[in-house]
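Phosphatidate cytidylyltransferase
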Amino acid sequence: MNDSSWGAPPQAGQAGYWGPTERGPVQGAAPAGPAYDAPEAQQTRPMPIVPDGPAYGGDQDDDRGAARTGGPLFRDEDHGAFPGGNGAGFPAEEHGRLPDERHGGRTGAQPHATPHHDFSYVPQSDPSYVPQNPEPMPDAQPQPAPAPAPQKKSAGRDLGAAIGVGVGLGVVIVASLFVVKAVFVGVVAVAVVVGLWELTSRLQERKQIKAPLVPLAVGGAAMVVAGYVRGAEGAWVAMALTALAVLVWRMTEPPEGYLRDVTAGVFAAFYVPFLATFVAMMLTADDGPWRVLTFLPLTVVSDTGAYAVGWRFGTHKLAPRISPGKTREGLFGAVSFAMVAGALCLQFLIDDGTWWQGLLLGLAVAASATLGDLGESMIKRDLGIKDMGTLLPGHGGIMDRLDSLLPTAPVVWLLLVLFVGSG
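Predicted structure tokens:
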């Protein structure tokens, strides 16, 4: 309220006048207009007589909305008096000053004027006082958050399913090796076809690369059989024919993306069936089943050593941008396990083999298996996937098991030919 709202003072004795007289304060009806603004007015603030009653709060809150005979003259009236004050709704230190004077205004405010303040103090000595939404008091010293419990290292896969699937595959391979060699060749051909299907499917899903599966599957199976029947010469011829079939097959579709698709097809033909052909070529020797049985366990032992040592002691990353889970300690474990297994295999399983040849073979297997694993990890990272498939529980897909076997097959075949011959 500004100064222009203040009117002239009423005459003494006027009805409704509040103010001092010769006989003291006189109470009457409230003036119709604003109160006077006389400099000689007393510095006190007479209040209308209000009947005693409980302050609002607790069970009395429901009466706030009830009708009253002429509402409160001041906002202060609804909040009770301050303890130790002057009984007029203001603290003791404010006694003797009118509301406007406390706020830098003028004296002599009219009784029904609304001051620019809102005291909300309610004495807690009142039995009807109930705090409304009390704020929680902060702790003097906040308790530190408990440290998280250390988590155990996780293998990242279902080890039970992985072991069960591995044992089952091992039984099939061993049975086919020592019963009929041709059955094992068929197992290799089936694995190649499934691997090609997984690879081409992921390429099309993630990169829209349409490598023709039909010529790849037929040529891949023929490549494995040709390697077993005709050796390395037959494998190369089958590889060339498969690449030519991929080029011709892709001509039946629009030319957009032709170079991209045939390049992926030739890569797939070399990566999966051609490298697998060296396993069939090992089988052609007189001790072929034992050579294959040396190749497979050495690769598996290398992977197992890398996994076990890296999971338990691995701290230094081997290739974090390609495969963050591989560590240098894991590589050391792969080399150690493979060299010991190679010495045992060459000494006791391969005719004319020696333990030191086995050490070299184990070292080469550990290197090629690790590079093959990193190579497929690079492909999967480029495709944005974790596994190539889901056919083998605990392992992923067929290609997730062939990743280290495929590049290791030509290394083992070549070193065994150098150490003990091709017969």
